[in-house]
Amino acid sequence: MGGRRNWNYLYIIVGMISIFLFIGKISMIASAKQIENDTIDSKKLYKNCSIYDRTKESADAMYETLAYIQQQFPDRQVHTEANTKMAEWLVGGLEETGYTVKAEPFEQGGYSFCNYFVTKPGDSKKTIYVGAHYDSVNTNGIDDNGSGLSVVLELAKRFYSVPTQYTIRFCFFDGEESFKTKLGYAGSCNFCHTHIEERKQAVCYINIDSIAAGDYLFVYGGAWEDGSLTRTSTYQWARRTALYNGIDLHCLPEQVENPTASEAITAFRSPARETGSDHHYFNSVWKIPYIYIEANRWCETDGSGGNSETNQTCHYQTNQKELQQNGGQIMHTPYDNLEKLEQLFPGRVRQHMQQVYIIVSEMLKQGSHRLSLFWQGSDGFLFAVKN
Question: Which pTM does this prediction carry?
């Protein structure tokens, strides 16, 4: 009798576990479908946006930083006084927080550059890299890339004493706009080639560039190799984090109906965009997962949008009428100015920076991908642990 009773208990336990797993499966399948469905309004799914209240102080600080950059450091082209003063101010703020700043000067094409790095130790030596470039073209450089810089700087300050599973390396790159040397992304190029041994401990690279003014926030990630999509874990992680926090984070259009327009995005096959900013060499040289967050629009499904004269028919930032003569572009134009952006898009600059801050800070606090779900359409799903 005792043995039969024990078997009955075992059957009950197994049954309860089966019910729990079935409910969990249904819930996670629904979550995965939501992530894949770009038409879902995440704010309707998650009405409790108290996280915006919790990050208000950081949002205020980032906006104040951006306003200060506009006032003090416009036109931060490579090898200019404004570029140098910007770097000095940046280093001063990081040192005041308590960091020891590592400066890495280098030369390319007869021009001098300098990258800056600070490290926040974690429980593991495995490292997440978070970066933005601090140089600009001959504009105020608010969207490109004072906005990304302000977010990374605020993240570095806020996470200085926050326990994290992974070590975090905050990167401030020079020379992303290095047209004078005819070498794109000079700072990250130099870093990735001279520190290639670090990729063994690298978890991923998070790149934030030009997030202030485009119509929508986009995230790109993954790499197409031999016809297959790989290294998408960080991209999926970012999209889940945005969804769970009520933030609409768009992905690259899979295709457009107009074949001639689709030629403009053939180099950026969804969801990857393997070039365009400092993530390029982390992907191509280090071959680690990355995400690139920017504010953009891209073309409509019929291929319309932008301006063919800019050779960016499918890649443009806004459909605002005032910017039609620029092909819908804000970066690298006189409209990359905080006062003008506030006139055109009241409140957007602050909102976008806050939303990106929420996404990245939540990813850093989560520390790891933990148990990740990858949806496989109607065929089912699988679980995978991502380190």
Answer: 0.82
Q: Does 312 score more than 70 pLDDT?
A: no
Pairing of strands 290-296, 202-208: parallel
Is residue 295 within 8 A of residue 351, CB to CB? The reply is no
What tokens were used for 351?
């909102």
Query: CB under 8 Å to 316, separation ≥6 — which residues?
Result: 296, 297, 298, 299, 305, 306, 307, 310, 327, 328, 329
Q: Residues, the chain, total?
A: 387
| The pLDDT of residue 305 is above 80 | no
Q: Which residues of 54-87 are buried (b: 16+ CB within 10 A; e: fewer)?
A: ebeebbebbbebbbebbeebbebbbbeebbeebb
Q: Is the pLDDT of residue 5 over 90?
A: no
Write the burial class of residue 6 (CB in 10 Å: 0-12 exposed, 13-18 middle, 19+ buried).
Answer: exposed
Residue 74: phi and psi, rounded to 5, are -75, 160
Q: Where are the alpha helices (DSSP H) in 77-198?
A: 81-97, 147-158, 186-194
Q: In this prediction, what percent of the chain has a pLDDT beyond 90?
A: 61
Q: Which amino acid is at 320?
A: Q
- How many alpha carbons fall within 13 Å on the CB side of residue 53? 3
Phi-psi region of 291 (alpha: psi -120 to 50; beta: other; left: phi over 0): beta
Q: Is 312 helix (H, G, I), strand (E, B) or coil?
A: coil
